[in-house]
C-alpha cells in the first residue's frame, strides 16, 4: 500500500464541482484567477477514455490550476487503479470517484450513482486506488438512489467505503432517481436532506464530510460550515463566477493577492487565450464561453456577453474582441 498523504480538511472547505462539458482546463484556469484557495475538479473522465483514448487530451492541465482534483468514472478496481496512477503521475492533487451521476449513459457503463447499490464494489475500487497512489482518494455520492429514502442506506455506504481507505466524502444531499428523471431534473426534484449530511458528520467525526447541492449564497455556506468540513458549489459558481473572488477572504481568512477587478481578470484571460492559440491552436470562443457570467448584473453586461459569444468574430485576436466588448453596442439597430 502506498503511504497516503495526510491533508488537512481545510483543503475541502470550498470547491467547485466537477461538471461535464463545463469544468475543463480553461474553465479551471479562469476560476483559479478568482480564488487562490478553492479546490477545483475536472469533468468526469471515464476509465475507458483513459485506457483506450488520448491520455494527454484528457489529463493535460495548467500548473496554475492547483490544487486540482481528477474525477474518475468507472467500476473495475484494476482499471480505477491504473487510471488513478495516471492521474497522480500527471500531478493531480486528488483522485475522486464518481458515485453520484444519474445519467442513463453513465448507468450503461455501470458506474456513477448506481454504484451506491454496491458499496463493497466501491470499497474494492477505492482500496485499489489507495494502494496505487499516495494522493488522497475521495468519493462523491448521493444520499440514496431512486425514491426510497433511508438514512441507514447512505450511512452504511459511507461506513463500508471508509474502511477501504477513503477519508473524504462529498455528499450531494439528494437521492438520484435512476429512472424517469433527466440529469437536470435529478438536480432539482429529489428533495434536499442537508440534515443527513450533518448526521454523517456526527456518525463519522473522523471523516471529512463536504456538502454539495442547492447552495447559492455566502450565508448558506457559512451556516453549513458550522456543521461540516466543506461545501462544494456547482452551477451557481459557474454562472456567477465573480462570487469566487470573495471566497478567499470569506472562507479561508486569506487576503487577496493584489487588486482583483473584473477587468484585470478579463485581461488575464485574453493573455491566456493568446498563449493557448500559439501552443495548441485553441481558438478563443472555446475559452470565452466559461467567463460569460463575469459581468453579471453590471451595466453593459448584455452587450459584453454578446460580443464574447459571437462566433462570427472568431478570426479576430482576443484583445480586439475585448475592445469591442467594452466599446459601443455592435448590435444596436
Automatic annotation (TrEMBL):
Q: What class of enzyme is it?
A: oxidoreductase
Citing just one GO molecular function, the answer is: FMN binding
**EC code:** 1.3.1.91
The record lists the catalysed reaction(s) as:
5,6-dihydrouridine(20) in tRNA + NADP(+) = uridine(20) in tRNA + NADPH + H(+); 5,6-dihydrouridine(20a) in tRNA + NADP(+) = uridine(20a) in tRNA + NADPH + H(+); 5,6-dihydrouridine(20a) in tRNA + NAD(+) = uridine(20a) in tRNA + NADH + H(+); 5,6-dihydrouridine(20) in tRNA + NAD(+) = uridine(20) in tRNA + NADH + H(+)
For the ligand (FMN), the binding residues are 18-20, 71, 140, 172, 212-214, 234-235
InterPro entries on file = Aldolase_TIM (IPR013785), DUS-like_FMN-bd (IPR035587), DUS_fam (IPR001269), DusA (IPR004653), tRNA_hU_synthase_CS (IPR018517)
Entry-linked Pfam families: Dus
User: What cofactor is this protein dependent on?
Assistant: FMN
State the UniProt keywords alphabetically: Flavoprotein, FMN, NADP, Nucleotide-binding, Oxidoreductase, RNA-binding, tRNA processing, tRNA-binding
Q: Where is this site: Interacts with tRNA?
A: 98, 184, 187, 302, 305
Q: Which residues are annotated as active site?
A: 101
Annotated ranges, domain DUS-like FMN-binding: 16-314
Query: Which PANTHER family does this entry report, sorted A to Z?
Result: FMN-LINKED OXIDOREDUCTASES SUPERFAMILY PROTEIN
Q: Which family does it belong to?
A: Belongs to the Dus family. DusA subfamily.
Q: Please describe what this protein does.
A: Catalyzes the synthesis of 5,6-dihydrouridine (D), a modified base found in the D-loop of most tRNAs, via the reduction of the C5-C6 double bond in target uridines. Specifically modifies U20 and U20a in tRNAs.
- Name listed for the protein in its UniProt record: tRNA-dihydrouridine(20/20a) synthase
Q: Which organism is it from?
A: Rhodoferax antarcticus ANT.BR
Amino acid at each position: 500500500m502506498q503511504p497516503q498523504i495526510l491533508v488537512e480538511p481545510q483543503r475541502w472547505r470550498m470547491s467547485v464541482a466537477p461538471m461535464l462539458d463545463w469544468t475543463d482546463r480553461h474553465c479551471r484556469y479562469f476560476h483559479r484567477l478568482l480564488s487562490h484557495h478553492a479546490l477545483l475538479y475536472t469533468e468526469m473522465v471515464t476509465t475507458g477514455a483513459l485506457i483506450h483514448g488520448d491520455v494527454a487530451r484528457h489529463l493535460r492541465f495548467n500548473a496554475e490550476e492547483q490544487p486540482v482534483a481528477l474525477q474518475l468514472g468507472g467500476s473495475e478496481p484494476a482499471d480505477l487503479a491504473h487510471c488513478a496512477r495516471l492521474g497522480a503521475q500527471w500531478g493531480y492533487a486528488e483522485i475522486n470517484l464518481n458515485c453520484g451521476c444519474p445519467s442513463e449513459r453513465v448507468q450503461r457503463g455501470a458506474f456513477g450513482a448506481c454504484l451506491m447499490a454496491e458499496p463493497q464494489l466501491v470499497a474494492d475500487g477505492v482500496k485499489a486506488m489507495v494502494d496505487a497512489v499516495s494522493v488522497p482518494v475521495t468519493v462523491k455520492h448521493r444520499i440514496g438512489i431512486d425514491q426510497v429514502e433511508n438514512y441507514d442506506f447512505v450511512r452504511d455506504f459511507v461506513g463500508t467505503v471508509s474502511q477501504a481507505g477513503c477519508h473524504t466524502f462529498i455528499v450531494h444531499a439528494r437521492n438520484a432517481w435512476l429512472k424517469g428523471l433527466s440529469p437536470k431534473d435529478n438536480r432539482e426534484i429529489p428533495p434536499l436532506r442537508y440534515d443527513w449530511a450533518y448526521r454523517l458528520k456526527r456518525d463519522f467525526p473522523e471523516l471529512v464530510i463536504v456538502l454539495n447541492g442547492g447552495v447559492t449564497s455566502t450565508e448558506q455556506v457559512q451556516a453549513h460550515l458550522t456543521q461540516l468540513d466543506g461545501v462544494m458549489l456547482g452551477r451557481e459558481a459557474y454562472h456567477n463566477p465573480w462570487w469566487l473572488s470573495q471566497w478567499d477572504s470569506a472562507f479561508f481568512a486569506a487576503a487577496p493577492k493584489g487588486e482583483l477587478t473584473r477587468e484585470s481578470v478579463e485581461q488575464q484571460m485574453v493573455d491566456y487565450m493568446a498563449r493557448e492559440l500559439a501552443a495548441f491552436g485553441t481558438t478563443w470562443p472555446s475559452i470565452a464561453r466559461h467567463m460569460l457570467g463575469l459581468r453579471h448584473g453590471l451595466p453593459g453586461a448584455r452587450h459584453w456577453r454578446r460580443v464574447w459569444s459571437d462566433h462570427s468574430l472568431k478570426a479576430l485576436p482576443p484583445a480586439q474582441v475585448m475592445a469591442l466588448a467594452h466599446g459601443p453596442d455592435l448590435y444596436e439597430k
